[in-house]
Amino acid sequence: MATPSLAMIPSAYADSKLYSVLPNNGDGDFTFTRDSAATRIGSNGLIQTVGFFGNDLIINGDFATDSDWIGGAAWSIEGGQAVCDGTQPSGTFIRQDGTYTNGVTYKATFTVTVTAGSIVARLQTGGATVLGSVIENSGTYTEYLTSTGNSDFRFRGSTDFIGTVDNVSVEEVLGDQPRLNYDLNANGEPSSCPSFLMEKEATNLTIESQNFSADNWSSPNITVTPNVTTSPDGLINADKITDNTNDGQHRVSESFAVIDAKNYTMSVFAKYVEGSDIDKMYILASTSTPTTRAYFDIKNGVALTGGGTIENYGNGWYRVSMVITANATGNVLFGINLTNADDTANYEGTGNGEMFIWGAQSEINVVQTTVYAYASSYVPTNNIVLTRAQEGCIDGGNANTFNNLEGVLYTEIAANVNDASFRAINLNDGTDENRVTIRYRSNDDVINIRIEANDVTIISESISVTSVLDFHKVAFQYTSGDIKVFIDGVSRYTDTTTYTGLTIDRVNFDSGGNTNRFRGKCKDLRVYNESLTDAQLIALTQ
Amino acid sequence: MRISKYEFDSQEAAELKIAALPHATDEDGNSHPSHSHTIVKLGNIVLEKGEYDEDGNETKAPVLSDKYCVDVLWKDLEEVDEDGNVTIDHPYGWKSKAIDLDDEGVHGFFGLSYQDNKM
């Protein structure tokens, strides 16, 4: 088998970068953008946050106790803050030791009061001192500090500084990090190799996604016990809901705003409680939509009446979802109901009907004018509606990487959903006038291949597959006069059309020109600069 | 990147401004954004929550804002003049609709602070 000129197997990334295996000089690396955090499924099968900031590295940042900080002359911790009384003979510090990696940028936020003098946040010791700005006025500040390999974060007050420091937080800036997602199988087990996941932007309209005892949730005939078991993110932050002995609905519910005629997906994670009298639940939607219910057997992981979807997240957790269409602009009630039988809204409780729940999400599903059903990756919220920003991944390779005259574009991909949109992987020249494309398009369950040279369409062919939601290995040989497409080890298209004028200098996860961004999962992407034999194309795609 | 919050008099007014941002048309004739901004149409946000009975029926309608709200995570708005000075401003026609909050508001972008990143 020939050696590819570019190969990207999802394995390594950094801020704004998705690394390619070949070429190994950096020319093949992709530029990745998503200006927000997002979640993925990690190699341990748990939901993890990726970008934009890391964990808080400061302990006791609210100075609740007189510990963890080392103060110089005139500093003390009292009344829930660090206090400098102005008796210092010279500049004076209060510091906390830590590990700050050379070249990594950290975001420091803190509140200071300044009665006299000035104060500076800094990374120090172990490398050159990194200074924040000189602060002479009281307020809450954010500083971005790039470490030189420092081993402490500190505040240094001037000789005449009198004031306080409080609410200190220092987080690593992770930035625009791509998601290497370990897909779960039907048993909820993570795959051994990740795929590169790209999604459209999405907003979780549920205000409190994992705190069901918050004021935004009402709980008729239900008691909520917060933070009682390990959730799908590995933390003990899942709630338990317990019924009472009344005859009626037993639920927690929140409402979210909807727009007339739009589709929404409502989802939540649920887990059966061993010994509970209840093993079923349903999602309820009412108001501004026809009353809709989707029932699920959480003990056995089965979707029941109502056409809902259930996904196994392992450790007894299932993500259940339901799609509704709003029939007015207004609010929809989002109910998470217990029930003792399929297709039964009300029941008489026992006081021992319980279920664990976590991670509620309600999101609009719109691409252009088309609506579709898809529970996208989880966006945790805490008293505010939150959006995961859109993603882009472009500019792998350069003019020296590719062959304008012959070659093969190969990828192994799956779509997130049939959403009637174009979603492309594309050799191109930065425009849509020269391109070799493998893409999903507006028809369901079709892979479309296309060559455009000098703004002339050479071929555009749609090839049916069983389901675009499944992974398919697609090899597209774009050689003039010897065009071939192999999918999953089978020759699916040949064409002897000849053409000239193709100019390609990069591979993008879009159509070139920033349109038709890829939305799906990619396990492998390669470009060969030479034609391959049928036997090689079969071997590549089997 | 920069985050801004806007209030329009109507959905139509908001849609006009959004449509005026760069778009491209595919071979099916559908228009797609060709910019990298993330635009969130919050619509007429809830000022007072609705109330519901035990069966999920609405007993009191929510009170909605009469303004149509849009949050935007702007990307690559920086402009550099011939002297190397960098300026960042709202796209044409958006500035007059911008609002400035002293908290995070009802909507945010996952992992980002509006206060730290607002224009």
Structure description:
- The complex is a heterodimer of chains A (542) and B (119).
- Chain A has 542 residues and is mainly β.
- Chain A has 1 helix and 47 strands.
- In chain A, strands 1, 18, 19, 38, 43, 44, 45 and 47 form an 8-stranded antiparallel beta sheet that branches. In chain A, strands 7, 9, 10, 12, 15 and 17 form a 6-stranded antiparallel beta sheet that branches. Chain A has a 6-stranded antiparallel beta sheet with strand order 21-22-33-25-30-29, with no helix packed on it.
- In chain A, strand 13 (119-124) and strand 14 (130-131) form a beta hairpin.
- Chain A is flat.
- The mean pLDDT of chain A is 94.
- Chain B is mainly beta and 119 residues long.
- Chain B is built from 2 helices and 13 strands.
- Chain B has helices at 11-19, 114-117; strands spanning 2-8, 23-25, 31-33, 38-43, 46-48, 51-52, 58-60, 63-64, 68-74, 79-80, 86-87, 98-99, 107-109.
- A 4-stranded antiparallel beta sheet of chain B has the order 4-9-1-12. A two-stranded antiparallel ribbon of chain B has the order 2-3. In chain B, strands 5-8 form a two-stranded antiparallel sheet.
- In chain B, strand 6 (51-52) and strand 7 (58-60) form a beta hairpin.
- Chain B is globular, with a radius of gyration of 18 Å.
- The termini of chain B are close together.
Characterize this entry briefly.
With 542 residues, chain A is mostly beta strands. Chain A is built from one helix and 47 strands.
